[in-house]
Amino acid sequence: MGDLWAGVEAEAARRLLRGAVGLFAAKGYGGASTREIAESAGMSPAAMYVHFATKAELLYRIVGTVHEAAHAAVAEVGNTTVVERVRAMVFALAAFHAAHQQAARVTQNELAALDSERWGVIRDLRDATEGLFLRQVELGVRAGVFDVADVPGTTRAIVSMCVDVARWYSPAGPRTPDEIGALYAHLAMRMLAVH
Amino acid sequence: MGDLWAGVEAEAARRLLRGAVGLFAAKGYGGASTREIAESAGMSPAAMYVHFATKAELLYRIVGTVHEAAHAAVAEVGNTTVVERVRAMVFALAAFHAAHQQAARVTQNELAALDSERWGVIRDLRDATEGLFLRQVELGVRAGVFDVADVPGTTRAIVSMCVDVARWYSPAGPRTPDEIGALYAHLAMRMLAVH
After folding, report:
1. What is the mean pLDDT of chain B?
2. How crowded is residue A44: how many other Cβ atoms within 10 Å of its Cβ?
3. CA of B104, closest CA in chain A: separation in Å?
4. What is the pTM of this model?
5. Which chain A residue's Cα is nearest to B163?
6. What ipTM was estimated for this complex?
7. Across chain A, where does the E strand assignment appear?
8. CB of A184 within 8 Å of any CB in chain B?
9. Which one, of B74, B69, B68, lies nearest residue B91 by Cα?
């Protein structure tokens, strides 16, 4: 799964993002101060502003990175049969939300803190990710390999189940992210009644 | 599904709880002030303190009520076959999280704001609700009516899928809470491979 922040150039910015995720997880976005976030990265608030002008900017970078990385994990699934593609997409989405549990949980909990323009960008990304699943499920139903009466409702339930892994998953628990991915891919195949 | 706050004696306390849910949903627990909550109920902060000594007290009442009501909805399912019991329990939990979407979403998002003693009480309630499902799935597997390799993992996925309805459900969307309940009961039966 790799490091969620590997694409962020400045090492100080990566420290700030990691610190902010930990503080938002512990205290909520409203409860964590910019001073604490800067301190968690060993910086002064003034040094932080070079990288992120506001706390809202930091949250938006976290939320945006989580959504882009989740979308990429699903989109990069190779071109194989519909069944194998959906299986691999569910594996990827569930394993992602286990591997990046804390950042994904903060993202889910703090969406209401985004202004409406930023929320619009994120909503489009979410719709695009769900759209990748929807198209494959529709293809599979048309090809007769899935048996699904309510295509949008069932697709939403599968995506929702994967995303919700971030709400309860703990790296201290009994399953690795890949084991979660494998279990959820199996359950999704059952939900789609693969013949 | 009825009114979540029907069991709260004082009408002013019910107004405060409804106002707090709306404000926590819009601004987060950290972002909503006690003054705003009191105003949303048409009261002064001093009048609010008669009912809830602190904002933390209000949040705990919301979180506690949601967990108790969800548990009761699942626990009150009648004594029938294992298959029908699990079907009805999934229906109840999914429909509950649609019907009480906003209060349940606030509950999920703000758990980190509870102190450790209160979180302990809530965690026990959550475990008890999941335990109701776990016992039935185990019974069904032993009776040969469910075909499940990973009983705790599959049970957790079913409960998680129902709880996550509160993250995305909108009463303005195409499905009623009962329609969500019926769809999720059907999907859970597939996940358990009912013979």
Report:
1. 95
2. 11
3. 12
4. 0.95
5. A164
6. 0.94
7. none
8. yes
9. B74
